[in-house]
């Protein structure tokens, strides 16, 4: 299993196997760098995954604000932010904050996490657990959006109608055809999604999230999922 996590600098949310992450250059077609063993181990803490998951949608945050959101002390979130920064997963926002209040953001470039090629069953289990937690949080956001729609006024619903879609397709294809589909998506990201980075302060913009999943709907033994 391979999953990718993109950031505001290369925004597109996905998940896969992963070597330590020097941030990949933005707007480059192709998969992001894979997390190494040490970085993956550092990420295998539910609160760190939660922090990493929150930053793209909320924008830069301080340890104190993160603490309010996740229900932890600022000392706890500050510690976890430093651990994530140690492995290049978050970084301080330049020119913002003070020595006592630092602002943090996801490091541009994204990363991937894969269960393939891991040297031990424990490493594969760690990669799978991290991917599962990211996917769980992603599903929570989808459900939160659907629930929020129940309380929205007609004007808001009409505005969002053309800008929202949930798409699923079930086809039959060879692994090579599926790989070509993923490669085409990578090109689409570079052409259409990456240019939307760094628009947080542009009037009229909203935070949004794009999902794209390609995976066989069978288990390793060939049984339907």
Automatic annotation (TrEMBL):
<dbReference type="GO" id="GO:0003677">
    <property type="term" value="F:DNA binding"/>
</dbReference>
<dbReference type="InterPro" id="IPR051081">
    <property type="entry name" value="HTH_MetalResp_TranReg"/>
</dbReference>
<dbReference type="InterPro" id="IPR011991">
    <property type="entry name" value="ArsR-like_HTH"/>
</dbReference>
<keyword id="KW-0238">DNA-binding</keyword>
<dbReference type="Pfam" id="PF12840">
    <property type="entry name" value="HTH_20"/>
</dbReference>
<dbReference type="GO" id="GO:0003700">
    <property type="term" value="F:DNA-binding transcription factor activity"/>
</dbReference>
<keyword id="KW-0805">Transcription regulation</keyword>
<feature type="compositionally biased region" description="Basic and acidic residues">
    <location>
        <begin position="1"/>
        <end position="13"/>
    </location>
</feature>
<dbReference type="InterPro" id="IPR001845">
    <property type="entry name" value="HTH_ArsR_DNA-bd_dom"/>
</dbReference>
<dbReference type="InterPro" id="IPR036390">
    <property type="entry name" value="WH_DNA-bd_sf"/>
</dbReference>
<protein>
    <submittedName>
        <fullName>DNA-binding transcriptional ArsR family regulator</fullName>
    </submittedName>
</protein>
<feature type="domain" description="HTH arsR-type">
    <location>
        <begin position="28"/>
        <end position="128"/>
    </location>
</feature>
<feature type="region of interest" description="Disordered">
    <location>
        <begin position="1"/>
        <end position="32"/>
    </location>
</feature>
<dbReference type="InterPro" id="IPR036388">
    <property type="entry name" value="WH-like_DNA-bd_sf"/>
</dbReference>
<keyword id="KW-0804">Transcription</keyword>
């Amino acid at each position: 299993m391979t999953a990718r996590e993109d950031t505001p600098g290369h925004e597109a949310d996905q998940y896969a196997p992963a070597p330590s992450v020097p941030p990949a250059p933005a707007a480059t077609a192709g998969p992001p760098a894979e997390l190494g063993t040490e970085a993956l181990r550092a990420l295998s803490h539910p609160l760190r995954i939660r922090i990493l998951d929150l930053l793209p949608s909320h924008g830069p945050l301080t340890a104190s604000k993160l603490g309010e959101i996740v229900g932890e002390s600022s000392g706890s979130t500050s510690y976890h932010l430093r651990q994530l920064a140690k492995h290049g997963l978050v970084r301080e926002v330049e020119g913002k904050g003070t020595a006592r209040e630092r602002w943090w953001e996801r490091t541009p470039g994204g990363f991937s996490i894969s269960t393939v090629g891991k040297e031990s069953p424990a490493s594969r289990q760690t990669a799978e657990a991290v991917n599962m937690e990211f996917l769980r949080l992603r599903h929570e956001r989808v459900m939160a959006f659907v629930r929020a729609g129940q309380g929205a006024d007609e004007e808001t619903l009409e505005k969002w109608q053309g800008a929202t879609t949930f798409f699923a397709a079930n086809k039959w294809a060879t692994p090579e055809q599926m790989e070509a589909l993923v490669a085409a998506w990578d090109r689409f990201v570079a052409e259409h999604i990456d240019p939307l980075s760094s628009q947080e302060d542009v009037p009229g913009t909203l935070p949004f999230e794009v999902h794209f999943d390609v995976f066989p709907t069978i288990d390793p033994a060939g049984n339907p999922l």
